[in-house]
Amino acid sequence: MTAGRVLLAASAALVLAGCRQGLYNQQKLKPYRPSALWENGSSARPLPAGTVARGSLGENRAYETGVGSDGKFVTELPMTLTKGLLLRGQERYDIFCSPCHGRTGDGVGMVVQRGFKRPPSFHVDRLKNERIGYFFDVDTNGFGTMSGYAAQVPVADRWAIAAYVRTLQLSRETPAAFLSDHDLTRLDKAPPAPADPMGATSAAPGTPR
Fold first, then answer.
1. How many domains does the structure of the chain reveal?
2. Quick check: is 61 in a domain?
3. Considering the chain, what is the average pLDDT of its residues?
């Protein structure tokens, strides 16, 4: 490399370094750093009275957390149950939940068949008797080896998933008299349920999700 090129490269590096340092070293207050500007010496300031949260206000505790005023999981869906909500729940469940829990909620999703720890079936008595707020809470915060989905799935969709889980549970126990002739005909033509790929008829014991 010629001396001219070396000088040009060095000059360019100095210019770029100068630009970066000028922006990096600007005056600013980093979170939780002390500041002499305020009497209490803290750079973090309390929110002004009347401040409204951006995105979600979070005033409805039952809707936002699945927990009621009594500190227990809610027993009722905090929104109107519609066919559209269940279809949305089915779509979100198939995307986010079925890889582990399976399309029918038996806990034999594809990643479980490939060696991941099997979750309990949604059809065991313990989970059939759980409050719907429990399923929303687990979807939000996770449980055991399951991570929470609050960052990926909005609140409304988490409730839609919880409602769809209830639908999966009820589908096993709905009396034939409740079904239309059209539904009965479709069931008669449906192929038999596939055998459990894990070689068991119920979920293996383990940490509940």
1. 1
2. no
3. 85
